[in-house]
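ARCHIVE CARD
Drawer: 12
Card no.: 0347
Subject: one protein chain, sequence and derived structure
Cross-reference: see card 0346
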Amino acid sequence: MKKLLFFFLFLSIYSYGQSIDSLYRRADSFRGKYATKFYNGLSDIKAINDTHSFWYLTQTPNGNEYFIIDADTKTVYQAFNQQKLALALTNVTNKEINPYKLPLRSLQFCKNMHSIYFYVDETKYNCKLTDYSINKDLNQTSRNESYWGGVFKENKKDKIKSPDGKKEAYIQEGNLWITDIDTKKDRKISNDGSVYEYYSSNIYWSPDSKKVVCCRYRPAETRKLLIISSSPKDQLQPKTEEYDYPKPGDALPIRRPVVHLIDENKSIEFSVPDVEQQFDLSNIRWNKNSDSFTFNFNKRGHQQYVIYSGDIATGKVRPIVDEQSPTFVYYNMLYQYWFENGNELLWVSERDGWRHIYLYDIASGKVKKQLTKGEWVVKSVIKVDETKRTLIFKACGMDKDEDPYLEKYYLLNMESGKIKSLTPENANHSVTFSTDYSFFVDNYSRVDLSPTIVVRSTEDGKVIFKPLQQPDASKAIEAGWKIPEVFSAKGRDGKTDIWGVIIRPSNFDPNKKYPVIEYIYAGPHDSHVPKSFAISHRCSELAELGFITVMIDGMGTANRSKAFHDVCWKNLKDAGFPDRISWMKAAATKYPEMDIEHVGIYGGSAGGQNTMGALLFHPEFYKVGVASCGCHDNRMDKIWWNEQWMGYPIGKEYEECSNVVNAKLLQGNLMLILGELDNNVDPSSTLQVADELIKHNKEFEFVILPGARHTLGESYGERKRRDFFVKHLLGIETPKWNK
């Protein structure tokens, strides 16, 4: 039966006059054919300091053009003369510069808007717009970024000046020292530091310059990730690279806060509950009166997060905020804002089952008022105005008849509790505020709704003006582009709405059957299905080969209720699959052209783990998978991401969710893709999967990419992925690439 279906799929492709080579050309030409015909959208936009103006970059029929939006004059005009700038850059760089393909990065306008600053490659330039003279910026800072996973030992030699400018504090041989700037005399303040447990070089002076907080710091041995560059560009022989890479269960540094009273020759070590069980102790800050300080304490296992206050008079700590959860506190989404009055604190919590804003009384450590409430989610606090007692926040899900992931902006009066919608339209609102927050540019759209650009007042959300030049997708639609469909269906419980997107090929025929391919990324740190308009999504080109592609947010991802999110807890192998399968079955019932007897799946990183997990744990539904750079065993991956969701100490759940341990369950067709220089997910994670599959005599394909880091596969991997799906879902022969 399977061979017969493949035969009919093969015939259907060729009956429409399309060779396999033409299908690949169709996929390769997708962006050039459609994306280049979407005009006047906002590719980039920034507020210009100390003005009510914004610059933005857009694609026009000419190419890329820069414009200014002026909220005061309600006008839009060219940001600068692109021909003159291109000529000036050509002279400076000795390279021919196209005025409609300007290679500008990190563009900034000076506040009088007479000059601009930007990078070309790694060089920073400034250009005077009065005469288009260009010079290298002598004050440029390095653009080199440090490794994301680096462990900092807190043993720098920097000298930190006191607020009154009379003293400097520094660490020497593990102890705190103070220098009197006038007399040049040095004084040793602590005596109990050593090379094994030293005082941290993160030094915090009190406002009165009489006290210092710095932690006694006990370092932990840091695990190293060793990877081999087999094919370096600058030499024949391979190289090795080494990175800091703590993994779940590894020892972590311990910090103990100590206050040093400089004039009294006295030190106070504060006893912190469960100090040895810390994941992190951070964000040390003094109060205005210099009689107490606060710090954040993230208990390992992420089920408790506390803001403590250390009182100098008593030498004791007390909790101001004590956030606890039987599953996990998602600490990366926590928010705190300390009022200038020193009496109040804003805090974001999921304690009532949804992410909301709370106003705390600092003195008592009690909630004064829950400022937002309901079955919807606060995504972030944008701006607090203490004088007006208002705040701007971004939220999703407040309008019940809409997609609950659409982002909108609101103005909240903290005294009355009244919430004013600043962006009421049924759309995903991408907003850029002026630097004084008086105005904002609102670029709103949906996956299935072309963008609209308006300028609004932050006071009430009223539209100040709508630029004449609006985004236009009509030419792409005329060329044959199919607008993706937003689709929702009930999840595993038969009650919860699950949201996703359906993408059809540009030559879609409702009378044909199309295998379905899901692009998956089920990382619990966010939701991942796109919500804004775009011509090309991750799996748009793949659809052109003769597939219907989908993207879905299942349970276990963020930005819904706490219960929705908690599905991932110690259970990353779930990945929302029961919801995804239910969603696809509902979609196929409505759209019989979706052939869910032949479903493929692919993804990278957490999506790579999810992809292989689909074949291992749901082989009755998912038949073909391409997993790139997957974190296939959560014990092998970075500590902070995996302990957040899988818990600490390391339990049996880590094995139960492991693709390595469960590799023996493989039934479908699997391809593994790996960048040999992946310094995000340990490459050994994929190699251990391969080793286990070989032990169980399982058939699979393995593509390793020399010189590649954390990747879905780059151009070669993309071709291999296409071939794999064409072969196993369409059942036809792929192009002869070696001809």
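Annotation on reverse: The two ends are 33 Å apart (CA to CA). Residues 447 and 531 are 5 Å apart (CA to CA).
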